[in-house]
Amino acid sequence: MAKPVTFKIEAKGKGNLARAGVISTPHGDIQTPAFVVVGTKASVKSLMPEDLAQYVGNQVTLANTYHLFLQPGHEVIKEAGGLHKFANWQMPTMTDSGGFQVFSLGAAFGKGVTKFATGEADGDTGVPSRASLNVYSQKFAADHGKLCIIDEDGVTFTSHLDGSMHRFTAERSIDIQHAIGADIIIAFDECTSPTADKDYQKEAMDRTHRWAKRSVMAHKQNYDALKKQGLYGVVQGGQFLDLRQESARVLSDMDFDGFGIGGSFSKDDLGDSLRVVNEILPEDKPRHLLGIGEPEDIVQGVLMGCDTFDCVAATRIGRTGTIYVMTGAMKTTPCGTFTYPETKKISVTNAKYKTDHSLIDPLSTGYVAQTYTKAYLSHLFRAGEILGPHLASIHNLNFIVNFTKNLREQLLRV
């Protein structure tokens, strides 16, 4: 039986692990490197699905298994004909496993912990460059305490919506993702806190490997899904390179269609963490870096052999008036593979932008960047107009999508 998700390499970087390729799926091809737009609840916040094709230009969209399980329920999506029909996403799609939600509901709950161990203030926004994970209220945390319990078989957790209790196992996560119907689904994993010690990182990694085997078996037992959906395994190991290597070796021996690289990283060590993994993972299968997608991180990820990236930062910061812009300066990677624009974030709610009638980003090619001014965007946010988050989100997503596309184009010219 032919695999529903395949990967072909078209070009390689010189002196590094970078590659340009094509991931083929039942709903179309993904030309890589590529940025995956996140639509957590089958909705990219403040955008119509038509905006993705017309103004953002992304090739693939990712939804969240945990959130769709709770609302509206995977059975509803299955009845609608699957995620593509339900959300009118006319492109390849992915769903995660719910593993990161295990992390956010458990060890990281209420602590502002992210996938990076450290964060820095960025530009003139005055906010950390990695948005905090505090998406649930402190009151709810006090009322319900720790929201999940992890054991060998799976995870028991209470819904952040109504406090109801639920259970995820590897088999259950795969079953839910089968019903949702994305082209690429991800094996159930445990994403640990970057503050966890090596002993716990090892324990969680080994558990993730056992869950990975069970995920593969659950997927193979559904013949219909096996013909339409590709399954990725997730490399774990935290900041410890030897654990990352072990995880890559173990998962490489399993029958996955591709691989996610998950868990927590030290920002300074991101490159090495990816390099040691991608030197081991099969070259003929795609690699997705889960939950990381700032411009500099994407450059680092591509150089170290990653093909696709997803991150909520672009829309999350956009909804509060923070946008990506180019500074006008150019950067070149040490190996000379990529020359790319230096970027920064600005907050259009700052007073200096009230009368700044320059385009949102004169150096970007996107429709929003070339049509609207900083003063207008500043006005929209100050006036509480919903058009503000809409335009800022479109701009930020288009910015990151095109930034990544440009890296692909340079690889094809090597």
Question: What does this protein structure show overall?
Answer:
- The protein is α/β, with parallel strands linked by helices.
- It has a single domain, classed as Queuine tRNA-ribosyltransferase-like (TIM Barrel, Alpha-Beta Barrel), CATH 3.20.20.
- Helices cover 37% and strands 20% of the residues.
- It has helices at 49-56, 65-70, 74-79, 83-87, 99-105, 138-144, 170-180, 198-220, 223-228, 241-252, 270-278, 295-303, 313-318, 367-371, 374-382, 387-412; strands spanning 6-12, 19-25, 28-32, 34-38, 61-63, 93-95, 148-150, 154-158, 165-169, 184-186, 230-235, 258-261, 287-289, 308-310, 322-332, 339-347.
- The strands form four sheets. It has an eight-stranded parallel beta sheet. A three-stranded antiparallel beta sheet has the order 1-2-3.
- The longest helix has 26 residues, at 387-412.
- The protein is globular and about 60 Å long.
- The two termini are 35 Å apart.
- Residues 108-113 and 118-145 have low confidence and may be disordered.
